[in-house]
Write a structure and sequence with these properties.
This protein is mainly alpha-helical and 236 residues long. The protein is built from 14 helices and two strands; from the N terminus they run H-H-H-H-H-H-H-H-H-H-H-H-H-E-E-H. Helix 7 runs antiparallel to helix 8 and helix 9 runs parallel beside helix 11. Helices cover 70% and strands 3% of the residues.
Length: 236
């Protein structure tokens, strides 16, 4: 029995070493200045983060995961960069699958980091909705409220003219400010389209501005937003 146990341990050790050598061989392909696997092992031992960053810059995400696993390195950044690359390619299906495979705390961290670096509104809306639909239990109430406001704002901006989105983007945390700014800029039709993208209850909460009577939506083939008091627009 002891001989069988030793044999099993030896087989397991050899399998581990073989897997490690295969990973090192792949790393060598990205580091032509290195000649031997021992140099790769030394580099990973002394500068593991530099190796990971190099692999991430080259889009070698699966190899980065293997390196991180072999050396017990943090993988959150890898998942963030991989998901970001998928969103940049508009591959929301695989992005969803990637986030779904993570535990909730890691997925929250990845999503929050993505919201700080994403500039594309549709990608931002994808991440916001993923958090609200799949990670709500892992988020504090105040963050859920913030994400709900961001979702509303992103929908409104996607309905606004592309030429006005850049100027309005800093107002993402405050959807009522986006609506107000559209009205101040006399962009009434854009404000109407933005509101029509939202659920009825959300519209009601937004169309009361600065204590003034609410705005009215006039139903027509080209829906137009009409303030109850036109003096507001005339003064602006």
């Amino acid at each position: 029995a002891s001989a069988a146990a030793r044999t099993g341990e030896l087989v397991e050790l050899l399998a581990t070493q073989l897997s490690k050598l295969k990973v090192y061989a792949q790393v060598l392909e990205d580091h032509p200045e290195l000649q031997r696997w021992q140099q790769v092992e030394g580099l990973l031992t002394e500068h593991p983060e530099e190796v990971l960053q190099h692999l991430l810059r080259r889009g070698r995400f699966e190899l980065a995961r293997k390196v991180a696993c072999l050396h017990s390195l943090e993988t959150t950044k890898i998942e963030e960069m991989y998901t970001l690359s998928l969103l940049q390619e508009r591959d929301t299906l695989r992005a969803h699958q990637t986030l779904e495979a993570l535990d909730d705390p890691t997925a929250v961290t990845v999503c929050e980091c993505l919201l700080h670096v994403l500039v594309d509104l549709e990608s931002m809306l994808f991440v916001i909705r993923y958090e609200l639909q799949h990670l709500a239990a892992a988020l504090p109430p105040h963050r859920l409220e913030e994400l709900q406001r961001l979702e509303t704002s992103a929908k409104m901006l996607l309905a606004a003219p592309p030429t006005s989105r850049t100027a309005l983007k800093p107002l993402l945390p405050a959807p009522s400010r986006i609506l107000e700014q559209l009205l101040m800029n006399k962009n009434v039709e854009a404000a109407s389209h933005a509101l029509c993208r939202l659920p009825a209850e959300t519209r009601k909460s937004l169309i009361v501005l600065d204590g003034n009577p609410p705005l009215r939506l006039r139903a027509s083939s080209s829906t137009t937003l009409l303030p109850a008091q036109r003096q507001r627009q005339q003064q602006q």
